[in-house]
Specification:
Elements lengths: L2 E2 L6 H4 L4 E4 L6 E9 L2 E14 L10 H13 L11 H5 L9 E5 L14 E3 L7 E3 L5 E15 L3 H27 L2
Amino acid sequence: QVGVFEVLDEWWKRERLYSLFELSSGGFDVIKATKFDDDKFEIETIKADNIGFPNANIYIRPSNDYYKSCFDLYTDKDISGAYSNGKYLEIKNLTELSNRYYKILNSEPETETTTGHKSSSWYSSENPPPSLISDNGIKVYYKLKGNYYKVVEKDWIFFKDIFIYLIIELVIVSIIVVIISRSKL
């Protein structure tokens, strides 16, 4: 169900919109992962939001067709090949990966990333929000949220494992020495 969006400021007038409709369900989400090094990457989530109509002549009840058209426009204009069907859940769950020795942490980048971010998290807060414009001038606004991540070693686990393995080896060598020395008696 789409309803009229009530605005507190008048950015929609600067955008020259005839009407603006609030998205209450549907739309699209795009998740994009950008790898910087073997251990550093960022994940951006683009979430479709409201629909703006530039004039009364093309006023039509908002539908998911507008979102589909803008989703195609957004993913087709990307030349990096970052958008692949079937990768949504893999990227969404990427930060949950860990093993005995490594974990993934949301952290500040040491320097500005190649995508221009300097913090561990960011989101779009502009007025007007970023938008995609369909062929007939209809604007689909979206929200952008991102996080920077780094793969880090879990503290002391390597040293703990090495210590345990050394103790086990010492015990085995001691047992062998005792067996050999008793067999000579």
